[in-house]
Amino acid sequence: MRMGHVSRRAFALAALSTLATAPGAAALPRAGGPGRRPRGSAGMRGVWLATVANRDWPSRPGLPAADQRRELIAYLDTAARDRLNTVMFQVRPTADALWPSPYEPWSAYLTGTQGRDPGWDPLGTAVREAHARGLELHAWCNPYRIALDTDLDRLAPSHPARRHPDWVVAYGGRLYYNPGLPEVRAFVRRAMLDAVAKYPVDAVHFDDYFYPYPVAGQPFDDDAAFDRYGGAFGSRAEWRRDNINRLVRETATGIRRVRPGTRFGISPFGVWRNASTDPRGSDTRAGTQTYDDLYADTRRWVREHWIDHIVPQIYWNIGFAAADYAKLVDWWASVAEGSGTRLYIGEALYKAGAAGQPAAWQDPVELSRHLTLAARHPQVRGHVFFAAKDMADDPIGAMARVVADHYGRSARPPR
């Protein structure tokens, strides 16, 4: 995600970016119409539809409901045209909701005012219209992020963070719920499962934010929670990882209870640990490691099959020195092998043709090469592209090339 839009990818990219510019390339034509028949074998062909800071949708807060709906439908139509089969729709971007929730206020990204009813039901509409187009709809939630600033008073008066300021930690210019508090974990689980109870979503989807990406020189202030709940652990890091593990296991259990058959997937930062840190890690030199910095033991979640699928964000080009796409796909394939957890690869469509990106990303064929390479690994069951606006704009034709090279026929959503 581009940083100017306050993205969930920001800190991750900063950890590894070594950027260079290169000339763009001519766009390629799209590969025909929706092409829903004949249908190929099942495989994930997904796209993230981000709402945080109006990254993809709505194009700005305060649009009339009819215009919001029209923009949303246009993205679903584009996904169907490109023969995708799944949309990850961000419905809880900042401890708020894109459906009428009894737990959290309406998102400000809809009306410009948190808590104001937009006059329609975006999630309900998205589920219905996605299914009408043969698309799955995954409800994408960010568990702990509250706000993109540190002013509690800017939240809606009814916001749970204002009623429970002891749940909140200010860090890196933002507000987060404290993952170390059992009451926080219970609350965010209830808030997210409300969407599962009300709508036939095909899956619940978490992004890469657990404990926040570290900011140099700034400790995350969970001293009181650690003093109260961390006594059984050898270190604060172990306690923090247990907090996140509990969230993952309890969410999975809750989803199965509320709507059996609904799946649970997570899209972590692409590097679990470097091999220099842990011999089980990947041949990378990442500045961020999910196990050590976000306290997310993503490898364990896969190996022990706590989640139905994982979508690591492998957002680097083939041959990138610090984190080679090819090496990371190989590593994740070995982790997923025999686990029962399906592996899909998160793809950095947003980098294709973007100013300041390395020369590889100025080539419209780079992304298509990713799919060709990943197809050598039977454990890779598909791909998810970040993000919807970049799919629609497709400035150098990278998505069109993917469709032409790999999506000649439509494919059933994976089950």
Topology readout:
Blueprint: H1 10-14, E1 39-40, E2 44-49, H2 65-81, E3 86-92, H3 108-111, H4 122-132, E4 136-141, E5 145-147, H5 160-163, E6 168-171, E7 174-177, H6 182-198, E8 203-206, H7 223-229, H8 236-258, E9 263-266, H9 290-294, H10 298-303, E10 309-310, H11 325-336, E11 342-347, H12 366-374, E12 380-386, H13 388-393, H14 398-406, E13 410-411
Parallel strand pairs: 1-13, 2-3, 2-12, 3-4, 4-8, 8-9, 9-10, 10-11, 11-12
Antiparallel strand pairs: 5-7, 6-7
Describe this protein's structure:
By secondary structure, the protein is an alpha/beta fold. It has a single domain, classed as Alpha-Beta Barrel (TIM Barrel), CATH 3.20.20. The strands form three sheets. The chain has an eight-stranded parallel β-barrel, surrounded by six helices. Strands 5-7-6 form a three-stranded antiparallel sheet, with no helix packed on it. β10, α11 and β11 form a beta-alpha-beta unit. α2 packs parallel to α4 and α12 packs parallel to α14. The longest helix is centred in the middle third of the chain and has 23 residues. It is globular. It starts with 9 loop residues before the first helix and ends with a strand.
User: What structural class should be given to the helix and strand makeup?
Assistant: alpha/beta
Q: Return the CATH architecture.
A: Alpha-Beta Barrel
If strands are numbered along the chain, what order do they take across the biggest sheet? 2-3-4-8-9-10-11-12
Strand percentage lies at: 5-15%
Sheet of most strands: 8 strands, parallel, barrel
Rg of Cα set? 20 Å
Could you name the ranges where pLDDT drops below 50 across 5 or more consecutive residues?
A: 1-38
Summarize the amount of helix as a percent range. Answer: 25-40%
How many helices does DSSP assign?
14
Mean pLDDT: 92
The fourth-level CATH homologous superfamily is: Glycosidases
Intertermini distance: 28 Å
Protein name: Glycosyl hydrolase-like 10 domain-containing protein
Keywords: Signal
InterPro entries: Divisome_Glycosyl_Hydrolase, GH, GHL10
Organism: Streptomyces monashensis
